[in-house]
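Recall from the previous lesson that a structure prediction takes nothing but the amino acid sequence as input. Here we apply that procedure to TRIM73 from Pan troglodytes. The sequence below is the only information supplied.
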Amino acid sequence: MAWQVSLPELEDRLQCPICLEVFKEPLMLQCGHSYCKGCLVSLSYHLDAELRCPVCWQVVDGSSSPPNVSLARVIEALRLPGDPEPKVCVHHRNPLSLFCEKDQELICGLCGLLGSHQHHPVTPVSTVCSRMKEELAALIAELKQEQKKVDELIAKLVNNRTRIVNESDVFSWVIRHEFQELRHPVDEEKARCLEGIGDHTRGLVASLDTQLEQAQGTRERLAQAECVLEQFGNEDHHEFIRIDKD
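The prediction returns the following tokens.
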């Protein structure tokens, strides 16, 4: 026998109209619609008036609803081993299968029908989870794009740094080479200037040495003459006059 629906579509058709989860201990009402046993018991407990089927609104007797054995067998056959038990509402003990878009919190089917979230926009948890995963995937993709841009920027900065360092090395070599070429004639001119200054200085020093030697000789002769004159000055009057006349 060929199946007309896929497994996910089949699971959607096996959802309780109240909690929007796969039936758990399904009970069948007189109208033919089925509900989880816990959902039906909670609904009957919180209603002050007669019980009506939430789907067709037919008045039914919830206390005489038999188990839907065939539906339970199908669900048991589809259930994977080790499936975790869903978290339940603290008020109604039903699975937290809905998400209140207004209050941004998880609720059960009865919270949406009878509780404080009545008439609020609600979405199945599976749908919200898929939506959030899509948003997360979009955020991750955006982060990857930003990371790619940063990686490209880093690569560009590294390339620029390498290029600048290489260009600096080339420019430094060129400048050193050019200044070395310019320094040859400067060094030659410097040597000529220093040699000229040296020759001129040596000539001046030699001339000054000669003049100094002559001046020192003159000073010695003057000192000798001074000494002789002082000796003359020490003679007595008669001898001094005689020597002076000579």
